[in-house]
Design brief:
The complex is a heterodimer of chains A (about 375) and B (about 400). Chain A is an alpha+beta fold. Chain A contains 11 helices and 10 strands. In chain A, the strands form 3 sheets. In chain A, strands 1-4-5-8 form a 4-stranded mixed sheet, covered by helices on one side. In chain A, strands 2-3-7-6 form a 4-stranded antiparallel sheet, with no helix packed on it. In chain B, helix 4 runs antiparallel to helix 6 (about 235-250). Classes of the chains: A alpha+beta (about 375), B alpha+beta (about 400).
Chain lengths: ~375, ~400
């Protein structure tokens, strides 16, 4: 047993942190946030491709580095810390994961090398409106052609290819859809986190290629969401850690009544609460990283736990950082809102925490026998 | 990152399981059994464990351990928890007092006490808190005055866990009132049978009496029982208290399986409480907190095994566990509607232990550092924030105000 990053993984994380400090300062995030015509930072994306990050877990045979998922988690933590304005999650945690989990050898050979080289942005289109309806989908595939509307699709405005959940003659399935077709219309929308874009994708008879087993769409989506949830949790703990650091530094610099605000217990206890939530989130995330890396049977429970703890921690840290900044925190100039926006973006992009709580309890209550390690709890 | 047993750990776990299966069933006792009965069985069980090398797996051989790893200790504790064997009587001695002796006492004293404590023959308590010195421990007033060939001790301690069945105690006393409060303290060990030591159990709001008042009246303590230098008692106490936070971060209350079974058994409309979405959301967060604490403890162990010192970050264990217990026991009682009023063991859920935990939880948020003190510790020692502005700094103890 070993419950931490290895020395090599820590080194990778430090390298990632240095690279992002240099290439993704707040001004880089703001350049995307402030310009509605720009959806991501191409320069940063290209740099990440050069470092091999886009092929981190893609097998070497497809041009990737073939690293483990814990390494990808270490990179994710730093991307979260930097609030990086890039389609990393859409392309890697969702699109590439779907191909790795369900793609045929031909599909993997066709798309994975392009992802690793930074030549392809992917997206994952499941939602069709507000809420989590369990009924029929409006997106339908007939004779290899897809018709219907997906809203919202994160990175749908910039992606080259989408993986779409759609109904067919049988139960819903996943389909690869090239977004360059004329029968695909993309409508960019304003988003809560303007450093990450959302769009409407409207399909009117576009070619759609089945991905994975027919009728297995819901099951595959669950599996991909579980894996993505772990990686997103690392972005969340990176962001939450950044908030804690910003709030702490500010509390030491800002003086009122002749003393730093960080000497008041009202502020100290708030920062301690942040620290506690962050540590609980990190511990759950480490367990989930192990489960993801080894494809352990514990993954469904571990992923849901990691996502819940990390969503809770980042949400709390982001809003309380603004509170500790005081009036300054409410301005556009202060960086606190970059994290506040990203916290909500990350807690929704793989489905809201309430849905994950439901998944977790469903998994726990159907667990046949207590896990050995939990007997002492 | 690896949360699975290594081959060596797996072998150790199998060996432990086999030994427990053969041995533990003879030493089980109900949590509700009278304390005296539990203590007899606890001592016998502790002796069994010591004989087999499992009393403190990770202690060095010189102390009577087996020189195992901290992870092996965790494995043993996990496996032991599957049986209803008694626990709790020896934690303060083995977890806090003996490690303090190991750091500050001479070899003869260490050898005298380590073995008997390990075998459950001797029990230790910690004589620190006082009526006027809880969160502000360094304000304690129990005096130890040097009388040419012994220290004469007078004062009152309070909240002393297990003093009524303890053989020895660690005693923190004031030896100098002319210097600022932290600088005038000295640590001793004391035989609880010393003339002038009187123990009075405290009747807690939870009904039991785990804690005591201890009165010290002209108790004589030889200088050979001093731990550390005269005036260095505060530094010694920090070693004890740091161990308390490591020891104290353990879970209490019903397991996830017990919570699920209870929620399933309580009807709500045409379904059960377990089908209630609001309840499910809360249950999910309780689980996430418990798992977060479990893995945080394991991360602390990784730091230990890599030669790093676990710092005040281990304070989060008790801080989270106490509030979690309070909230979840309250909710589990409330979800039963009027039936939740009953804590009669014959009718109540989980044999009444849920109600007991509910009445115990308020104390847990105070004992071993209140929520507020633990947050101060995290803020100051982990996050590096400034201490509170102090009005007692540099002031001789005898000049400190003690009331309006």
């Amino acid at each position: 047993m070993d419950f931490d990053y290895s020395e090599e993984q820590k080194q990778l994380q430090q390298e990632a942190r240095r690279f992002l400090l240099d290439r993704c300062p707040p001004s880089t995030v703001r350049a995307v946030l402030d310009n509605s015509a720009v959806s991501f930072d191409r320069h940063l994306w290209a740099g990440m491709a050069e470092l091999g990050w886009l092929g981190a877990v893609i097998p070497e045979v497809h041009g990737g580095l073939g690293l483990g998922y814990v390494e990808l988690c270490a990179i994710a933590e730093e991307l979260g810390r930097a609030v990086a304005p890039v389609p990393f999650a859409s392309t890697l945690y969702f699109f590439a994961e779907a191909l790795l989990q369900a793609g045929s050898p031909a599909q993997q050979a066709q798309w994975l090398p392009k992802i690793a080289r930074g030549e392809l942005i992917g997206c994952f289109a499941t939602a069709e409106g507000p809420g989590r309806p369990s009924g029929a989908l409006t997106a339908v595939v007939e004779a290899g052609r897809i018709t219907g509307v997906k809203i919202p699709v994160t990175d749908g405005d910039i992606a080259d290819v989408a993986i779409v959940l759609a109904s067919a003659a049988e139960a819903p399935g996943l389909y690869l859809v090239d977004l360059g077709q004329t029968s695909v219309e993309r409508t960019p929308l304003s988003s809560l986190d303007g450093s990450r874009s959302v769009a409407i994708l409207t399909f009117t008879g576009a070619r759609a290629e089945p991905l994975g087993e027919k009728g297995a769409g819901r099951r595959l989506v669950d599996r991909i969401l579980q894996r993505a949830a772990v990686l997103l949790a690392f972005e969340q703990i990176g962001g939450a850690d950044r908030c804690l650091q910003m709030a702490r530094d500010y509390a030491l610099q800002r003086y009122v009544f002749g003393r730093p605000i960080g000497s008041f217990q009202a502020i100290k206890h708030r920062l301690a609460d942040m620290y506690v939530k962050n540590e609980l989130a990190r511990s759950n995330a480490y367990y989930a990283a192990w489960a993801l890396d080894t494809d352990a049977g514990e993954l469904p429970i571990a992923a849901a736990s990691a996502r819940l703890a990390a969503s809770d921690a980042f949400d709390f840290a982001a809003k309380e950082t603004i509170q500790i900044y005081g009036g300054m925190g409410f301005t556009w100039e202060a960086d606190a809102h970059l994290l506040f926006r990203r916290a909500r973006q990350l807690s929704l992009v793989a489905g809201a925490p309430a849905a994950w709580a439901e998944r977790l309890v469903a998994a726990l209550s159907s667990r046949p026998v207590p896990l050995a390690a939990e007997a002492g709890a | 990152m690896n949360f699975a047993d290594s081959p060596q750990e797996s072998t150790f776990r199998a060996k432990v399981r086999e030994w427990l299966a053969d041995t533990a069933p003879g030493y089980t006792v109900s949590r509700g059994a009278p304390e005296a009965e539990r203590l007899v069985i606890a001592r016998a069980w502790q002796a069994q464990k010591a004989a087999a090398g499992y009393a403190r797996v990770n202690w060095p051989r010189d102390w009577g351990g087996t020189g195992g790893t901290a992870i092996q200790q965790v494995i043993f504790t996990e496996e032991e928890a599957r049986y209803g064997v008694p626990s709790g009587f020896f934690g303060i001695g083995l977890g806090m007092c003996i490690p303090t002796l190991m750091k500050f006492a001479d070899i003869a004293t260490q050898n005298r006490f380590a073995g008997p404590a390990l075998r459950g023959e001797q029990i230790w308590c910690q004589l620190f808190s006082e009526p006027g010195a809880g969160s502000d421990l360094a304000a304690l007033r129990t005096r130890a005055v040097w009388q040419d060939d012994f220290w004469l001790v007078n004062g009152q301690k309070v909240w002393t866990t297990g003093a009524h069945y303890s053989d020895y105690g660690l005693l923190l006393a004031r030896t100098n009132t002319d210097v600022p409060k932290h600088a005038g303290l000295t640590m001793f060990w004391i035989d609880m049978k010393t003339p002038g030591v009187q123990v009075r159990p405290i009747h807690q709001m939870s009904g039991g009496s785990d804690f005591n008042e201890v009165y010290l009246t002209d108790a004589r303590v030889p200088d050979s029982q001093r731990l550390g230098d005269v005036g260095a008692g505060w530094k010694v106490s920090l070693v004890t208290l740091m161990n308390e936070r490591v020891e104290g971060g353990k879970d209490r209350g019903p397991t996830t399986e017990q919570i699920l079974a209870l929620a399933r058994s309580v009807p709500q409309g045409t379904a059960t409480v377990l089908d209630d979405p609001a309840f499910r959301q809360k249950l999910a967060m309780w689980y996430v907190q418990a798992e977060g604490l479990r893995f945080t403890r394991l991360r602390t162990l990784t730091a230990l095994s890599r030669g790093q010192t676990p710092g005040p970050e281990s304070s989060i264990g008790k801080l989270v566990a106490a509030s979690r217990l309070q909230e979840l026991t309250g909710e589990l009682i409330e979800c039963q509607d009027q039936f939740g009023l009953i804590d009669d063991a014959a009718y109540a859920a989980l044999g009444g232990s849920l109600h007991h935990d509910y009445l115990y939880a308020p104390g847990l948020r105070i004992a071993g550092g209140t929520d507020e003190i633990l947050k101060n510790i995290i803020a100051e020692r982990v996050l590096g924030l400034p201490g509170d502005i102090r009005v007692d700094k540099g002031v001789p103890f005898k000049d400190l105000p003690t009331g309006p």
